[in-house]
Specification:
The chain is of the alpha+beta class and 632 residues long. The chain has 16 helices and 22 strands.
Length: 632
């Protein structure tokens, strides 16, 4: 025991000596780099705080621009209706809580041949909306900045902040947008005012450190917000720098009004020094945060003292801990044998003796621990994989149900038409689609096939059906519908997916069908006498490949008693066991045998049975979609 204790003491002293030297070196390096680390941290924190808050301010300004821009079309529509123009101004003020007033100034004689001035204005007075007509020789708005500058620039303009002229004492800024007729002739300016009280409160609350100061300045360098309210709009970024002869301050001020961002330090770390972090806004304003070194480095000395104290206590604790550990080096190897026996009997959480040395016992300990951990990880992964597969299968089943519910199920069967359609995806979800609806006396219908399989194709299918229903509802010709769908899919189609489509519109009175085939299979038309014939339409590309492709539509006269069969390539490309295809010829032969008066449900049911009989139990390799339209 003495030998063991002596060895433990010597080894502990050696460890403590090496550790003490290391701690001294760490303390020296910590003291050397503490200022650098704290300086970088301060710059990062101040920069992030400034950037986030400037983004918040810019978002509000952008929202005001969007609200104002969204109503300008109404001014062209109601250009000769004074009451309607006032309603537009009042609507803008009440619909956007950031806007406290709206003025719409017109060019001389633009609204009235006898009036030089006409400026309807709406504003908030307490909780009430008020309105009045401004414009006179005493209030010549046509010479004011909010009207004149956007008129000359020909683009929207944010004015410099100013105190409201109504005597309320609130600080406002104005967004002005020039107005033009459809022929490009300028006829006036719309102005939206915002109250900047919230901005002052928000900027003053930006404090990365206790004594930090945050300011906001306009394009002309005048203070918009400042901790000293007397400086707002009365002094500029240059005032104090010029009075103190501060060259760095002048450089920062010039940099800010030039729209640049950066970091500048001033003074020294022991006296009244610090850093200033500044950055621009999109509308020409700029902000800055000033942090003193006394705040930045206030915790450095305290942190170093605490670190030293912890290090000393750790050395003492480490000495006694190491001594105790070393005295327990000789643990019976039989404990490892019992652990291995327990693992062999199926106890994969058996206790393994703790070993603190880096010798053969440690390697044996690690080997047993690794084996136990590997077995447990394998069991856990197997359980996770099983659960994940079950969850994924359940989600696919739900997605399949949702996809089928998206398709129309209310099939028309009246005195004029008998329509029915089916979709059988090859996987849980697929990329085929069909849709139809009536608009007046017109029946719009389409059948499409999205490139690819599975979930991506299903998502594209949902988008295609929604686009068809919306665009066809605009009563465009068939080629126009396909053109619109094609252009919308080409925009941002990084995945390279496309869809083949057959789009048609049948006038139920004249039986005239207008259609456009976008790279789709030729449809089958069965005449009243039962003779089937493929309709070979003009060649068009599938939708989603080339923007602005000139799709060509066609027109044909249908006969009463005829049937249209529209399908996807899953029908003709259905394979049997030896890879033979069902094909267009077999489809035509099937159609020739069917009763022409047979309803669409029976027709498609028999066609599905014919395909199933051909493929037998061979797996379905593609989605199968079929639509039958019989003109009674």
């Amino acid at each position: 025991m003495k030998a063991s204790g002596s060895f433990a003491k010597r080894l502990s002293l050696n460890i403590i000596s090496a550790t003490g030297l290391l701690l001294i070196l760490v303390a020296l390096l910590l003291g050397f780099f503490s200022y650098i680390v704290n300086y970088k941290s301060a710059v990062k924190e101040a920069s992030a705080s400034l950037e986030n808050n400037l983004l918040d301010i810019e978002k509000m300004l952008t929202d005001v621009e969007a609200s104002t821009n969204s109503i300008t079309w109404l001014l062209e529509k109601f250009n000769d209706n004074g009451d309607a123009i006032i309603d537009v101004a009042e609507h803008l003020v009440t619909s956007d809580t950031n806007i406290v007033a709206c003025a719409i100034g017109y060019e001389p004689f633009e609204f009235d041949d006898n009036s030089v001035y006409f400026c309807p204005t709406a504003f908030m007075e307490g909780d009430q909306i008020r309105s009045k007509i401004l414009g006179s020789a005493d209030y010549d708005y046509q010479l004011m900045d909010w009207y004149l500058i956007p008129r000359l620039l020909g683009k929207p303009y944010w004015s410099e902040p100013s105190f409201d002229s109504d005597g309320s004492g609130r600080l406002i800024a104005s967004y002005s947008k020039p107005l033009y007729h459809e022929n490009g002739v300028f006829f006036g300016v719309i102005k939206a005012d915002i109250d900047l009280k919230w901005l002052t409160e928000k900027v003053q609350a930006i404090k990365p450190y206790e004594n930090s100061i945050t300011v906001l300045a306009g394009r002309n360098a005048s203070y918009i917000t400042h901790v000293d309210s007397t400086k707002i709009l009365n002094e500029t970024l240059f005032t104090q720098a010029l009075e103190a002869g501060d060259e760095k301050g002048l450089m920062v001020a010039k940099d800010m009004i030039a729209g640049n961002s950066g970091v500048q330090h001033f003074g020294n770390t022991r006296e009244n020094g610090g850093i200033i972090v500044y950055g621009p806004m999109d509308n020409g304003w700029s902000g800055a945060i000033i942090c003193s070194y006394s705040d930045i480095y206030s915790g450095v000395r305290k942190a170093n003292l605490i670190t030293l104290l912890i290090a000393l206590l750790s050395l003492v604790a480490l000495y006694y801990t190491d001594k105790s550990i070393i005295q327990r080096l000789t643990q019976p190897i039989t404990e490892f044998a019992y652990s291995a026996l327990n693992i062999g009997q199926g106890n994969f959480h058996a206790r393994i003796p703790e070993i603190k040395t880096q010798d053969e016992l440690r390697r044996l300990h690690d080997a047993l621990g690794y084996m136990e951990s590997s077995i447990n990880n394998y069991i856990a992964e197997l359980r996770t994989t099983t659960a994940s597969n079950e969850r994924f299968e359940s989600e696919l089943n739900i997605a399949s149900a949702i996809q089928m519910q998206m398709l129309p199920k209310d099939f028309p069967n009246c005195d004029e038409i008998d329509l029915y359609a089916t979709l059988h995806p090859a996987k849980e979800v697929g990329g085929d689609l069909y849709d139809f609806f009536t608009n007046g006396r017109n029946l719009y219908f389409c059948v499409g096939d999205v490139s690819g399989k599975g979930v991506p194709a299903a998502l594209y299918m949902a988008i295609t059906r929604a686009a068809f229903r919306f665009i066809a509802g605009l009563e465009l010709p068939a080629e126009g519908v396909v053109q619109k769908i094609n252009n919308s899919f080409c925009d941002g189609n990084d995945s390279g997916m496309f869809v083949t489509m057959f789009v048609g519109c049948i006038n139920l009175d004249t039986l005239e069908m207008k259609y456009c085939n976008a790279g789709h299979n030729p449809i089958l038309i069965i005449s009243p006498d039962g003779k089937p014939e493929y309709l070979h339409a003009k060649p068009n590309l599938a939708a989603g490949l080339f923007e602005d492709f000139p799709y060509q539509g066609e027109t044909m006269q249908l006969e009463k008693g005829s049937r249209l069969v529209i399908y996807t390539d899953g029908v003709t490309e259905a394979e049997d066991r030896v890879k033979n295809l069902y094909g267009e010829e077999r489809l035509e032969q099937f159609a020739a045998k069917e009763d022409t008066a047979e309803d669409s449900v029976s027709f498609l049911t028999n066609l599905a049975a014919s395909i199933k009989s051909f493929t037998l139990d061979n797996d379905q390799n593609d989605d199968i979609t079929m639509m039958s339209i019989r003109l009674k």
